[in-house]
Design brief:
By secondary structure, the chain is mainly α. It is built from nine helices and no strands.
Length: about 250
């Protein structure tokens, strides 16, 4: 029953992340498509009109004229290049070196690092707490955790924990030496080891991170929507003003 609940939790967190980012991602893609459409099919119709007052055009209009010309002349090549870069990026990410680089990047990027550390700690603490409470040995528990956390940096951390336990220093010492673990978790693990309630403490830490992640992802979704709407408004507003302002200049000549 506990394993089934753990599997459900593992599915729930990624689905929460996907649902939090799906609508902002749609807005981003939609805004890019709208901008490209305007630059390739709308802006060129005004370019001949603007060429006569080029020196009076706003800077944004001049920049968009250049971008529009580049898209019209080399749009196919740019699209093919972007597709090629995407294919090469996916191929590189599937290689061991690329996967290792991505794993390091997840734990170093601002804000993203915080989310991934919480996800990996929640999984690690969940399995360790359930195993230790059921009498599984620490070494067997750590070996099982290697397959639960899909990040090479965290897997090296688990390997360090195994070495610490083998040397007789205990789990808390390994947590204390890791820069990946927040201070409050280090303190709770140390307290749990000292009081003989390490499994229960780890289960509570996992529960805390699960709730905290859900709240954080929900906040991210609520914040991302207005931010993306603002970005869309700025993009479209800049393009529209770059078309309308020159028309006003022409009408007042």
């Amino acid at each position: 029953k506990q394993l089934v609940e753990m599997d459900e939790r593992q599915v729930r967190l990624p689905s929460t992340l996907v649902s939090a980012l799906s609508y902002p991602s749609f807005l981003l893609v939609f805004s890019v498509v709208v901008v490209i459409f305007i630059l390739m099919y709308v802006f060129p119709k005004f370019a001949p009109m603007f060429s006569g007052i080029y020196h009076k055009l706003p800077a944004t209009t001049k920049v968009l004229m250049v971008v529009s010309e580049v898209l019209l002349a080399h749009g196919g090549k740019l699209l093919a290049g972007a597709a090629l870069l995407l294919v090469l990026g996916v191929a590189a990410a599937s290689q061991p070196a690329g996967q290792a680089w991505l794993d390091r990047l997840k734990l170093r990027l601002p804000f993203v690092k915080d989310i991934f550390i919480k996800i990996y700690l929640e999984r690690l603490m969940r399995v360790m707490g359930a195993s230790l409470e059921r009498g599984v040995t620490i070494m067997a528990t750590l070996a099982a955790c290697r397959n639960v956390v899909p990040n090479q940096e965290f897997q090296r951390f688990i390997g360090t924990l195994e070495i610490q336990v083998t040397e007789g220093r205990g789990i808390a010492a390994g947590f204390a030496d890791s820069p990946l673990v927040p201070v409050n978790v280090k303190q709770m693990v140390a307290t749990g080891e000292q009081t003989g309630s390490l499994g229960r403490v780890m289960g509570r830490v996992a529960d805390f991170y699960e709730r905290d992640l859900t709240r954080q992802l929900n906040r991210l979704a609520k914040l991302a929507e207005p931010v993306m709407l603002l970005v869309m408004g700025l993009l479209v507003g800049t393009i529209v003003s770059s078309i309308i302002l020159p028309i006003f200049k022409m009408s007042t000549r």
